[in-house]
Amino acid sequence: MYTEPFRPLEQCEKVNPEHLAILVKAEWQLSYVTPLYQFRHTQLKSYSRQLSAFIAAEKQQGLAVEVEGSQSSFRVSFSVVQGMAETDDDAETVLIQPMFAKQDEPQRSVWSGWLTCINGNPDYLHSLPKGFTCLPLFGSSGAEVLTSLVKSWFQQTFDCCFGCLEINQTSLQWLAALWTNCHTESSLKHLKMIWTIPVVPPLQVTYTVDPQDAWELWMSVRMDQNIDIEEVTRFMQGLKSHFYRHFRLDLSAGNLQQVSTALGSAKFSGKIKVLLLCHRYRHCWLADEEINLLTTH
């Protein structure tokens, strides 16, 4: 059973507003990360210098961001995002930003990335050998070449590995239900789902549901204050049944690829966009749960 992790507004306000402005509204590509060896939150200034030097060396070889021009100066900023951790076992979130500036111009961020652990599996966290830090979820937004460089530096420096993190159908269905559950708090405006049907040629179905209709269906399957998978399943089955009555097409035969509302969007490919700050925690909870499955099986 999943208990709704609603955070009061004052809890969300513990996060630096500048950090929140970065975390919300951008689309993030998610990856999972194995534990970092000898990573220290107290050494972020040193890591900033090391990663800056690493990118400079790669740029001299023509492998970095040439669009910024050869006269650009840059530095890399590492910072801790306080207030994201849910438990005492969670390591604090780390934000990474390469800052570029042309002559006589202020520095600006051309890429952002973060490493986080929210509601990590306590048994797994306690089983890690001494010297390892678990920040299993990595989000990146910006040029792919910088994403590759940052990952490469982390792999060389902390003996870790990155891997693709897909948002599976179950997690997408959870998000559809959780967002619908927030309708009275923050209007959905729409509940949009994209399905792919395995026929020849492939068929893509876009299913947009009126927010009030989605809310009423969701309320009809609710049993108590907790949200469990049975309620989510009944909610999705109700949506599929409604679609079948109108179009005689069974969405159960297809795969859910994307869910979006006015609160955010999530894609099977691992891309996520959060438009309302307090709902970011639900995204990370789901992603960390998937990482927990990877690390415990």
TrEMBL record:
Family matches, as InterPro entries: CENP-L
Protein's name according to its UniProt entry: Centromere protein L
Homology family: Belongs to the CENP-L/IML3 family.
Source organism (scientific name): Stegastes partitus (bicolor damselfish)
Keywords from the named record: Centromere, Chromosome, Nucleus
One GO term describing the cellular component: nucleus
Protein's cellular compartments: Chromosome, Centromere; Nucleus
Keyword tRNA-binding carried by entry: no
Domain of life: Eukaryota
Name of a matching Pfam family: CENP-L
Main location: nucleus
